[in-house]
Amino acid sequence: MANLVKTLFKAARLARKGRPMSAAFAIGDAIAPPGHAGRKPASIGAKRKTSSSRPPRPEPGSFLSDEFRCAQGSLTYKFYTPHGSARRRMPLVVMLHGCSQTAADFAAGTGMNRLADELGFLVLYPQQSKNANLARCWNWHNPAHQGRSGEPAVIAALTRHAIILGRANPARVYIAGLSAGGAAAAIIGAAYSGIFAAVGVHSGVSHGDIRSISAAMSAMRGDARPRLAGKPRRPLPTIVFHGDQDRVVHPSNAGAFLHQLEQAHPGPLVARSVTGRSDNGRDFTRRIYKSKSGDLLLEDWTVHGSGHGWSGGQGGSYTDPAGPDASRAMMDFFLSVPRRP
């Protein structure tokens, strides 16, 4: 108890200094047991346990809320089924919110449901529990939630459940996230490349050797970049968005994704750079990296003048309505990637 009190005082000091994410990390590590994925109280919300029976597919246009439980833990989630045919096997996009956000807030801010109606794909929004992290941050900095354990294992199991629930196309499953959700998406995509075909990271940190709060904060400040031990495997196709005025996660972190791709030695990279301006006046630079044979490997968007928020998003927290539409750009990228074998 004494250690918890000390941690709470430390968190309060960090919050007063304008460092809410640091405060959240400190509190989250103090109150969450290792490997805990966050359990919702039994009296709140409907529960759907995993079983061999196939659940009914949600009606087109429905946005259901539910709780998922598996051997590794539990998570509440929201699941959107777009308007249109109820028989098609559609792509599935898993969206991981940032700190202090909820699934509903993230859905509103990114506008993914509206885009799903237009393009025809399912959207899964896992929601972090305050029991696992007081600020609802995904615990990407904690070794208990890296690789194929902890939160990644629960989200992977929930994704498999969503594929069955929505009759999704298992060869077209993607994962994306903002900030802590972006860092978690990078980890989960690398750990479960057998599920996901591509990854989207907005204002996040690449996966690597981060094993503590101090290492996470150092990376977020831009003091150090995550490194991979040994020769890394070729990463999944990845699209990265970052504002060059981001004061929460330093924009230099975007460069780590290219560095990791180069470390994987995929052969010569064919690079192309495009500049432009969004309809609402934000300049951007878009860099596209392909293999010599033409495979799309990485797309890196720098949004000039933008801070820590979803580019082109509106109606939710942590958005930049003036920026280019990150949601549409990510879906264009995802749908251009070859189907997972």
From TrEMBL:
Keyword Secreted assigned to the entry: answer is no
Instruction: Give the UniProt keywords, A-Z.
Output: Hydrolase, Signal
Region feature (Disordered): 36-64
Q: Respond yes or no to whether keyword Signal is given for this record.
A: yes
Q: Which GO terms describe its molecular function?
A: hydrolase activity
Specify one Pfam family: Esterase_PHB
Q: What is this protein called?
A: PHB depolymerase family esterase
Give the originating organism.
Answer: Sphingobium limneticum
